[in-house]
Amino acid sequence: MAEFEKEALKKTENRTLVGEVISDKMDKSIVVKVTKTLRHPFLGKVVRSAKKYTVHDEKNEARVGDSVEIKESRPISKTKHMQLVRVIGKN
């Protein structure tokens, strides 16, 4: 059982995503839109899907339009389970 828990923690720590900040109006929180593009298995056309994540931003350093890298973490609040790693590009 302990080995399984260790493997689960490793998978959780490694999950990082890159997205764009779409809202920074909350204190110590931002909303990040992560867009995935993939080719449809049967039709062959490119399909885009997007998901919004509420992210913990301790220093309030990200602004709307910035590209950011986020990682999964323990639950911080009801909706926040991601943390800001770094700001990649400024708007």
**Superfamily (CATH H level) name:** Nucleic acid-binding proteins
Total of DSSP H or I helical runs spanning 4+ residues: 1
Estimate nothing, just give the exact number of structural domains. 1
Contiguous low-pLDDT stretches (5 residues minimum) are none
Question: CATH fold name, please?
Answer: OB fold (Dihydrolipoamide Acetyltransferase, E2P)
Average pLDDT confidence is: 89
- What is the C-alpha radius of gyration, as a whole number of Å? 15 Å
Q: Looking across the biggest beta sheet, what order are the strands in?
A: 1-2-3-5-4
Global geometry: flat
Mind telling me the CATH class?
Mainly Beta
The overall strand count is: 5
- Summarize the biggest pleated sheet: 5 strands, mixed, barrel
How would you classify the helix and strand content by structural class? Answer: mainly beta
Q: So, CATH architecture?
A: Beta Barrel
Helices and strands, in order, run as HEEEEE
The share of residues in extended strands comes to over 45%
In angstroms, what separates the terminal alpha carbons?
A: 46 Å
The helical percent reads: 10-25%
Write structural notes for this entry.
The chain is mainly β and 91 residues long. It has a single domain (16-89), classed as Nucleic acid-binding proteins (OB fold (Dihydrolipoamide Acetyltransferase, E2P), Beta Barrel), CATH 2.40.50. The chain has one helix and five strands; from the N terminus they run αβββββ. Strands 1-2-3-5-4 form a five-stranded mixed beta barrel. The protein is flat.
